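Table 4 source record.
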Amino acid sequence: MEELCVPRKPSKWVDFVATGAIGVLVAMTLVGRLSDPEHRSLLLLDIAVGLASVALIPVVIRRPVPAAIALAVLAVLSPAATPPSTVGTLSVALRRPLRTAVLVGLAGTVAHLIQGLWQPIHGLPFLWFAVLDVVVHAALVGWGQGTQSRQQLLLSLRERALRAEAEQGRRVAEARSNERTKMAREMHDVLAHRLSLLATYAGALEYRPDSSPEKLAKAAGVIRTGVHQALDELREVINVLRDEDVYEGRPQPTFGDLRALVDESREAGTTIAYDDQVADPTSLPPATGRTAYRVVQEGLTNARKHAAGHPVTVRVAGRSGDRLRIELTNPASNGTPLAPGSGTGLIGLTERVQLAGGTLDHGRVPGGGFRLEASLPWPS
């Protein structure tokens, strides 16, 4: 298909306005011709050509190439067809490929050169007339092609932006779906193991009531700790699955809930040194605050699992226009972890932080201990 862009079907009002405007220019050309005595003899021809060229204006809008060629032929006969002919050339340049536009512009140029030889303008040498003819038609072709290229570029950029937005939305939805799937799998694995362990200790209490008080107290402590940890993990999974407005009840946590999270962990027996150096936390975007909350929550959960009874240090710092930095450290445990870690929690957390445009780093530090560090963007 030769046409580059298909315009909308013009209305009758567009035809009327365009025809009227060109008709005014043709009438002005005819009036100007009357001032030259040598051209008065061609008045009837000028009027006939002017009427025919004006009648072709609606055709130019719908079929620009044939109409532009017909107008070029009429321009050979009379200058009255010059305004409609230039409109036809411009219309072709706006809507057709460069090769077609150049050929139509060349036809218009030749037609006006013949017109200039047959009906010269007094006071204007033919050489200058030819120069003006070539320059005008070249400008019409260049203007039309430039406008067409700009329209095509804008259309291409708009389509690319829509595709990129749709692709980004798909990737985000897929990543969040994968994160929820991993968290659901972790819930099944961890809670099934923990609940079976609790059932074992509960059975021991039921069938061995004659155990020593020390063993009974130890079993009860294990059950209590396991229940608290299971509830924490279950609550975390449910909160993740309720994200993205799937659940309209309890709101998602924000950065302002961090202190409550730290206080809750302190009440559970964890010693926490909390250092908050965040300037104007109210300007922090909600999504960034929610991600920061998840980072601290995961760090405290891992500390309770793998270093129970040891102190945890939480540092949060940042300001608008810079980045929000979160760091959790705790010493290494000398004992056996309360539960073996699957590692999927940190994987899901890494995906969450990356989706927010940040970075996450974790691992052991020299001299023993564990460090979890996240950096999140904070636009001004």
